[in-house]
Amino acid sequence: MTDFTKTRAMFDIPEGMVYLNGNSLGPMPKASPAAMTEFLNNEWRTELIKGWNTKGWFMQTNTLGDRIGKLIGAEAGSVVVSDTLSIKVFQAVGAGLSMVPDRRVILSDTGNFPTDLYMVQGLVKLKEDGYELRTVEPETVIDAITDEIAVVTLTEVDYRTGRKHDMKAIIDKAHSVGAVVVWDLAHSAGAIPVDLSGTNVDFAVGCTYKFLNAGPGGPAFIYVAPRLIETVEPVLSGWYGHEAPFAFTTDYRPMPGKIDRMRIGTPSIASFALLEAALDVWDGVDLNDVRTRAVELMDLFISEVESRCAGVTLAGPRNMDERGSHVSFHFEDGYACMQALIERKVIGDFRAPDMMRFGITPLFVGEAEILKAVDTLEDILKTESYKDARFQVRSAVT
Ligand SMILES: *Cc1c(COP(=O)(O)O)cnc(C)c1O
């Protein structure tokens, strides 16, 4: 049984703050400063160039990938860490297209995170040759998977509403018509149990700065099913994915039979120090326990808000089996209301056009935080304090 008192004590959350935004940027683990100092003083400063070998920097893409793999049901040797999620989406969809060369349609949904769609639009433009991105409503994706589709690319949990796709049903349908599926796990990894191997996933990508708490700009990851790795085209063919990077030959040859071929170039090793410290928090944590607790807390949050806060309405499904680990409410003045909450140290965020979004992350959020958040929201709505002019000013990041 996961001890959430213990995990709560591993985070350094400012006194008095109710942090309901771990779905967007996880809080800092208490171990992070020492991990960074250790990297600076006892790795970079002392080892310098030797560190690539003596401190294992060169293979941290894989050693850290394996640790993330354990949290998403991936086989050892099937995940590498580096770059950004946008780049990993491009790489995975590009690799998927090369596996189905006779088809031209990439299918996604209108609820997908914009960068995922933008990256595919860039890929389509680059490839020319009749490629097309088709987006349909999330609820109709499964019916839109036909033998015209080369790659289906979806985010499992909707970043705005929390709606969760039925991963297994979509994969089975796609495979039955010969299509390949790329899953974005941005709001799944560290949030809900994921079983990449058991669900027969082809490709998956995700980031580490949300539910995995590796800090702003923490590196992304990519998973390729072991059954595909021998033939998959890396697309972004950098020297880190080469069969022999230090042979320095002029022709690209992908690393045979290994996930290493999805590596691109020199990763940010400093960011790996933070990721490593963040992953230590997960030792002894069972994601099934996290899920059970998150559902209890989401149920509590939704029922308290609905009984005490007039004017706000739940976004996304009520059935918890169809929801990830965040809860959003529609409210006409949602932006201003969220600013008023933040001023009173209840931190969520706002997603256009009208959603106040709250991440429910049991590693550091419990009933006390949920109730304090609802008390504060209730008061802001009753007093209409959100109508104050200072809450209307929009920042660049919402
Ligand atoms: C957060 C998020 C991203 C962000 O991509 P970056 O390259 O890390 O900026 C992409 N896709 C989804 C689905 C996300 O939730």
UniProtKB/TrEMBL annotation:
A GO MF label: kynureninase activity
Keyword Hydrolase: yes
Reactions performed catalytically: L-kynurenine + H2O = anthranilate + L-alanine + H(+); 3-hydroxy-L-kynurenine + H2O = 3-hydroxyanthranilate + L-alanine + H(+)
One GO CC annotation: cytoplasm
One Pfam family hit: KYNU_C
Protein's pathway: Amino-acid degradation; L-kynurenine degradation; L-alanine and anthranilate from L-kynurenine: step 1/1; Cofactor biosynthesis; NAD(+) biosynthesis; quinolinate from L-kynurenine: step 2/3
EC number of this enzyme: 3.7.1.3
Protein keywords: Hydrolase, Pyridine nucleotide biosynthesis, Pyridoxal phosphate
Keyword Iron-sulfur in annotation: no
Cofactor field: pyridoxal 5'-phosphate
Domain of life: Bacteria
Its job: Catalyzes the cleavage of L-kynurenine (L-Kyn) and L-3-hydroxykynurenine (L-3OHKyn) into anthranilic acid (AA) and 3-hydroxyanthranilic acid (3-OHAA), respectively.
Complex and partners: Homodimer.
Name of the featured protein: Kynureninase
Organism (species): Planktotalea frisia
Lineage: Bacteria, Pseudomonadati, Pseudomonadota, Alphaproteobacteria, Rhodobacterales
